[in-house]
Amino acid sequence: MAPPSSTFRQVDEKHVPVEVKCMAWNPKIDLIALSNNQGEVYLHRLSWQRVWTLEPHSEASQVISLAWRPDGQVLGVGYSTGWVLLIDVENADVLHSFTTQSQVICMKWSADEALDMEVDGALPCYIDQSAKYLPKLPPLNKSFVRPSGSSRHNEDSPEDAKKLKEQSRLNILVVGCENCTVHLLAYGIYPVALLNLEKYPAVKQGKLVLANVSRDFHLLSVMVRSGHSDGRELFLHIFDIALLCTHHREIQIFAGKYGQISALIAYLDSTITAMTEAWEDILLEMDSKLAKFAEDKAKLGTGSVSDDFLQLLMFGTCSDELNQFLLYELTEKGLKKLGHSLETSYSNVQKLVLKHLQAVSQALTYHLGDVAGMSEWKERFGSLGLTPESVQDKRLRKSSNITMKNKR
Q1: Whole-angstrom distance, CA of residue 252 vs CA of residue 213
Q2: Mean pLDDT on 351-378
Q3: CB–CB of 321/308 below 8 Å?
C-alpha cells in the first residue's frame, strides 16, 4: 500500500476578471465568497457556478473582511467605511447592518460548541412562548411597498427576519476596527461588549491586526502590531471574558429577544412606509386630476379649489368653474375612475392598519413585556446589567412610543 502523499496538489484553477481582495469558504456548504477591489461580493459554488452578486455598499467602499456564521446560513461583510452587513446565503438579502464608526480590520465568527447549554441544578431556563400566544404576522404585500436597497422581510416568517429561530447555540461575531476597538456581537446582531484597546498603555500605540475569542468564550485574544520602530513586532494580548462563558445562556436568550424586537421594529417601519405610499397615491391621483383646474382658478383669481369643493359639500351648489370642470373635463367616466382609485388606496391603508399594524404592535408590546420580566430576574440577568431601570433605555421607549401612537 502506497504511503499517503505529504505534498499539496493543485486541484483546479479559476480565472476572475477583477482582482480578488479576500475570500472565505462556507463551513457547511460547497460555497465560497469572494470580494474584489471594486467593493463587490460574489458567491460561487465549488463548480464555479455563481449564486449571487452583492453590489458595493456605497461609493468607494472596499470589502476588508468576510466571515461566515458557524451554520453557514449568514455571511458577514466588513467594509472600509465601518459598516458591517449580514447577508442571507440564499438570496443576498441584507438581514442586518450596523456601523462601527471606523474601518473594519478583521472579523471572526465563533460558536460555543464546547459549552453545555444547561447545567444540572441550574435555574430553570426561559422559554419563548410568543408563537403560542401571538398571531402570525402577515407578509407585506409587494404591491404596497416598493423595493429598496434595505433589508427585506422573510415572506414566510417576518418574525424571524434575522434568521435566529434555528440557532440552538450561542455564537459571537468579533469585529476589530482601525480605531483599536473590538466589538463582540451575539449572533452578529446584539452588541455584547465593546473593548477599547487605547485604554491599555501596552497597546495604545499599536495597530490592531487580529482578534478572536476562544472556543469556550473564556478568553479574547488580540494581536497588535507595534507602533514603534519599523512596526515588525507583533504582540499578543489576552483578555479575560469569562462572563460570556458563565452567562452564555442568558446572553443567548436576550440576544434572541433583541433580534425579535429588531425584526418587529423593521416590520413596523415597512408597514408605516406602505401606509405612507398608499396615502401618497391618493394625493398624486387627486393632484393629477385637479392640477389644471387649480391653475385656471389661480389665473382667474376666483378663489381656490378647496373653496369650491367646500361650497359643494356644505350647500350642495357649485361654482360655474367647478361645474364646467366636472361636466366637460373630468366627465362622469373620469369621476368614476378617480373614485375607484381613491377607494382602492383607502382600502389598502385600512388593510395595513387592521392586519399588519395591529399585529406588529401587539407583538412588540408582548416582547417588550418579556424584556421587562427579564430585568426583574436578577439571579440570571442582573450580572449582564439588565435592570428595571435599564429597560427604560431610550431605544426601547422609542419603539414602545411608536407602537402606542399607531394604535391610536
Answers
A1: 16
A2: 89
A3: yes
